[in-house]
Amino acid sequence: MQASSPLPPLSPRTKWLIALCLCVLVMLLEFLTYHMAYRIGYDEGMLTTPPVVVQKSDEKAMQNLSRFMADVFASRESLAGILDNREERLAWIRDPELRTETAWGLTRELISRGGVVLALPAARELIDAGYAAGHYRVWAPRADAVAKALLAEHQYTSAYDYLKTAEEGYEKEGMAEPLVRTLQTMSSIDQMLNRNEQANMLLQRAVDAAAHLGPDALPVRSRLLAAQGRLARTTGRIPESREYFKKALALCPQPDKTTGDLALASISMGEAMLEAGRKDEARELFLKGLSGSENASYLLNDCLNALRGLARISTEQGNYEEALAYLYQAEGAARGVLPADHAFWAGLYDQRGWVNILRKASPEARADFLKAIANSSASPVISAQSREGLGKAWLDAGEGGKARENLEKALQLRKSHFASDLLSLGRVYYSLGLASDMAGDREGALIAYAGAVDSLLKCVEGAERRDLLVQSYLCKAYALCDGEQWKEAAEAFEAVLPMLEGEQRSENYKQLGRCYDELGMKEKADDCWKESGFPRVRMASPGRRPSVNSRSSRR
């Protein structure tokens, strides 16, 4: 078998081509290796700052930070300057969210240093930007915080704007508890600024929002109902006010069940307790509320009501000097804060005037009632009460003419605005009768006493109603005797007889016997004298009517 022939030898040309290809390959590898090493070195050089450059950069950054911190802590004005130019001064913070948080932190720092007014432009811009981004849950509490800072400075109008912003955010996020608190604070400001209709609307919204609080709803609703009761009383809607307080007390009868703002809850429930006649519990709650509201200027309106409530309790317990002390304390707290035309002043001076009436301090009472009348143009109920009080003060001073002038104005106000309040109407008629009698106008006195009797007979039973009715009947009877109208006088004495006891009943029989004597009705006269306990005594003329200073139920 023939062996295969070996491969033919390479030609010289082929050998040179192979050698050339090897050389090109080696050169290509050398080039690629060099280029790769160059790029790696370049990249490392780009990423690694030379020590000298690092040192100079650090020095510059420290200088900028030092200047920034110096401006922050130098003064309120320098801090405000940073906020006004924050786009430039905070440009070194690359992260927009971090830059915004830093700006808010500086705003909060400025507010904490008492520069709330200087911080307002930045605060408003930041809050509006946060709301525009839909971050209500974050920025609503911050708007609330700005409002509280403004309230501490008694900047009520500006605070109200931020509270409205907070209220919008709380409502959008369904944050019921802060929403209720904000609505009630706004309502308190509205009351301070004499915007009672708006205040009532906000309270009703707060009541509706409180329904979403779950287990905490009842005590909070109770507090809100008490606030509605107070507002109704302030605007003269007394029966409606009592219904609100009654509902408030039914929802939260125990003081220790109150939740939320403890001071506000205590004061509100104190008012409900007072309306229910539970004075000791009311006093305790008022004092508790006042002690917890020392640093809460937004509760000023509630604190003033608490002080007036304490004064009312002291007055009803006969502690007139203590009542005056509370009222002067309320005056001092409101001075320079509430506007001069605020309804609080009329109510305060009216209440103080009645305390002075009970102290037998007629000059001081007249001064207070005149102040109340000057401030009561927007409050018919205070105007009526103060006119009545001024008439009573002149009556106590023996000035029948001046007393009658003011009591006639009080009566007209009562008839025009509060005709359904028959007890108060009867009381004014009775005082007008005394004033007319003192001024020598017997016919006017008889008309007034008749009006008092007619009004009081339509009232529900009560201690004050009974006392006034007895005195009105007796004064009417004595005035009729003065005019020798014996038949009508006897009818008045007969009508009041079932309401009298003891010596007063015996005296009434004497006067009745005298009337029947004058009428020639001997048998009836003898029976009356016998009932009086003095069957053989004949009085020359009926005794004068009693001088009565019935205690008023002024609030």
TrEMBL record:
This is Tetratricopeptide TPR_2 repeat protein. Residues 535-555 are annotated as: Disordered. TPR repeats lie at residues 222-255, 384-417. PROSITE patterns: TPR. Keywords: Membrane, Repeat, TPR repeat, Transmembrane, Transmembrane helix. InterPro entries: CellSynth/LPSAsmb/PSIAsmb, TPR-like_helical_dom_sf, TPR_rpt. The chain crosses the membrane at residues 16-37. Gene3D superfamilies: Tetratricopeptide repeat domain (1.25.40.10). Residues 541-555 have a biased composition (Low complexity). It comes from Akkermansia muciniphila (strain ATCC BAA-835 / DSM 22959 / JCM 33894 / BCRC 81048 / CCUG 64013 / CIP 107961 / Muc).
